[in-house]
From TrEMBL:
Residues 53-466 form the Major facilitator superfamily (MFS) profile domain. This is Retrograde regulation protein 2. PROSITE patterns: MFS. InterPro entries: MFS, MFS_dom, MFS_trans_sf. Keywords: Membrane, Transmembrane, Transmembrane helix, Transport. It comes from Massarina eburnea CBS 473.64. GO terms for molecular function: transmembrane transporter activity. The chain crosses the membrane at residues 53-72, 92-112, 119-139, 145-170, 182-201, 213-235, 285-305, 317-336, 348-369, 375-396, 408-430, 436-458. Pfam families: MFS_1. It is found in: Membrane. Gene3D superfamilies: MFS general substrate transporter like domains. GO terms for cellular component: membrane. It is a multi-pass membrane protein. It comes from the Eukaryota.
Length: 490
């Protein structure tokens, strides 16, 4: 009996897959291939999905952030003076986008779990490009607020939709690096946004009778609309209904995710409201939402970054140029940290380390008037906060792997609730608190500590659940009952 238990614990992945019953075992169309040939098919599939989906998703996300942050760059181009907007009204215009944003996240992901991403995602991109471009023609504070709200509504489906979409194609080991690669669109757009705005402010002031800030909205919105049409051509749908995959690739795309989920099919058509109920009933979802909320708060300085850099005392074009280097470093660090997280299969300590880097940046930023020291702090703030956030996204997906509808709702809830904090954080950087912005720095530093502490708590919880699963396997054997094969990623 003891010998049987020992052999059960030592079963290889190949033996386990053989024991699993159809349909969660190797699909019929793949049974004739050797293990080496299966690995080749899988590698070819992943490379094809990478090349078809990641570049266009990144570019569209880059445009998403360009359009969202255009107001921060437009501020230096004269938006406030043209529209007679004061400091509090500007902060309200920043805040109202998030009111629209959070209203659509959960409904959108519930729909995306059953609709085709290749049609759904590019369509919402075109709509937000139109709305954002129209902001360049507003004539009053009321018009600015109305259009910024609509930008939030129309942008809301894209980001959580893309994270959910990636979770439907990539394994838990692959997902962190893919999310990091996708999220690089955020850091790169934040960097390029300053460079593009610098060129527009310097070269298009008065063009067509418009102040330069209007051209920031008009040109970036038009570019978004044009690029979005590529999504209809390039993006896949889901593993079961992507027409340009071969029969073997379709089977492999589904099977490799099924084997991570105890053989449970990832694309079972769970009704969207059942997925909502499942997500709300899982206590892990609430802790994940809190962790991501803290991470979002820690990044709220980005919506005022040009104004923060402006306190260094340089002219407006040089100021916009100086916003780029911190984001470029954040991009490089985030890719490296997320890649290592995926390779090592560990999330928690990678998040904690990133939080501590950004925490140090916040402390330095509010403690010194030295120009070099404050600019150095901006590098630390960006690289830590961005890196922590994108690893958390992959942790949400791997901790709530099934059903597909539940995972979609969990990702949308985490994103919606966390982004709701932007309604309050839009007021953390009033002009009177310059140049140190201590109120904002203190709030962000506390959020980073909460994010790190909660991540450690979640790790302890998941480790306990893994021990319980191991205990169940040692008594019942791998084949007895669902859940015996699944282990949470720490």
């Amino acid at each position: 009996m003891e010998g049987d238990k020992a052999s059960t614990r030592k079963l290889s992945l190949e033996q386990v897959e053989t024991q699993l019953a159809t349909p969660s075992g190797i699909p019929d169309v793949l049974r004739r291939y050797s293990r080496h040939e299966l690995a080749h098919i899988e590698k070819k599939l992943v490379r094809k999905i990478d090349l078809r989906s990641l570049p266009i998703l990144i570019i569209l996300f880059l445009l998403n952030i360009l359009d969202r942050n255009a107001i921060a760059n437009a501020r230096l181009g004269g938006l406030e003076s043209t529209l007679a907007v004061d400091d509090v009204q500007y902060q309200t215009a920043v805040m109202v986008l998030w009111a629209g944003y959070i209203s659509m996240m959960v409904p959108s992901n519930m729909l995306l779990s059953i609709f085709k991403p290749r049609l759904y995602l590019p369509t919402v991109v075109i709509i937000w490009g139109i709305v954002s471009g129209a902001t360049g023609f507003v004539q009053s504070f009321g018009g600015l607020v109305a259009l910024r709200f609509l930008v939030g509504v129309t942008e809301a489906p894209y980001f959580p939709g893309c994270i959910f979409f990636l979770s439907c194609w990539y394994t838990r080991k692959e997902l962190p690096s893919r999310i990091a690669t996708f999220y690089s669109g955020y850091t790169l757009s934040s960097a390029f946004g300053g460079l593009i705005a610098a060129g527009i402010v310097d070269g298009l002031e008065g063009a067509g009778g418009y102040p330069s800030w209007r051209w920031i909205f008009i040109l970036e919105g038009a570019l978004t609309i044009v690029i979005a049409f590529l999504g209809y051509i390039l993006l896949p749908n889901y593993p079961s209904n992507t027409t340009w995959l071969s029969a073997e690739e379709t089977a492999m795309a589904q099977w490799r995710l099924d084997r991570e989920n105890d053989g449970v099919r990832d694309e079972v058509k769970t009704p969207v409201f059942i997925g909502l109920k499942e997500a709300l009933a899982d206590p892990k979802v609430y802790l994940l939402v809190f962790i991501q909320t803290c991470a979002v708060v820690s990044m709220s300085f980005t919506y005022f970054f040009p104004s923060i850099v402006n306190t260094l005392g340089y002219p407006r074009v040089e100021t916009l140029l100086l916003t780029a280097p911190p984001y470029f470093l954040a991009f490089l660090f985030s890719i490296a940290n997320s890649w290592h997280s995926g390779r090592s299969g560990e999330h928690c300590f990678h998040i904690v380390a990133a939080c501590m880097i950004s925490f140090v940046g916040q402390i330095i930023s509010m403690s010194t008037y030295n120009t070099g020291g404050r600019y150095f702090a901006m590098f630390l703030q960006a690289m830590g906060a961005f890196s922590a956030f994108q690893i958390i996204l992959s942790w949400v997906s791997s901790t709530i792997p099934r059903s597909k509808a539940k995972r979609a709702v969990a990702l949308a809830l985490a994103t919606a609730v966390s982004n709701a904090t932007n309604i309050a954080t839009a007021y953390l950087y009033p002009a009177w608190s310059a140049p140190l912005y201590r109120m904002g720095c203190i709030v962000l530093a506390v959020a980073l500590l909460c994010c790190a502490t909660s991540s450690l708590l979640l790790r302890f919880w998941l480790k306990k659940l893994n021990r319980e699963a191991d205990h169940a396997v040692s008594h019942e054997g791998i084949g007895n009952g669902p859940g015996a094969l699944f282990r949470y990623v720490l």
